[in-house]
Amino acid sequence: MSTLKLIALDEEDLQIVSAHLQDAVLKVGDIDFLATEAKLVLGVNRFVWELAADGKRHRSFERRRTAVYFSRATNLRATGIDRQFKDDVLSILAIRFTATDAPSGTIEIVFAANKALRFEVEAIEVQLTDLGPAWETQAKPDHEL
Fold it and tell me: Does the model's pTM come out above 0.85?
């Protein structure tokens, strides 16, 4: 399977990026906010949902190391995340956008256990890029309805 590369420039695109990042895991230390460049960078281990959802039966599933870049990001705020605990693991549930003065708005990355990152953006500019080969995992994320 080839690597995934996505760009989001509007709210609909961001929903697609969010779907691909659902259940991605990362450590707090994998969050890098570059204030002078107005960029938020995440290094995540993405669950490959597009393979798991292809309708074919698989004995195992895949994860890939993925970089996610949010451009034009300012005023980063965290809820329930302490930067001093760099090895704490976060699990992404969704990424949301709320327009304030379109195309400006707030992006919220929602994590399990009531944790979140929120930041302002001049406009949605997000890049998702798989960085290398996949590795096998037996576990498929499962959520109660």
Answer: yes
**Predicted confidence (pLDDT) per residue in 41-72, tens digit:** 999 999 987 776 665 655 678 899 999 999 99
Q: How far is CA 80 from CA 36, 85, 91, in A?
A: 24, 11, 13
75 in a domain, yes or no? yes
Stated as kind and residue range, the H or E segment containing 14 is helix 11-21
Quickly list DSSP for 103-144.
T-EEEEEEETTTEEEEEEESS--EEEEE-S--EEES------
Domain that holds residue 87: 5-53+63-134
Sign of the torsion formed by the C-alpha atoms of 40, 46, 124 and 113: negative
Per-residue three-class SS string for 72-89: CEEEEEEECCCCCCCCCE
End-to-end CA distance of the chain: 30
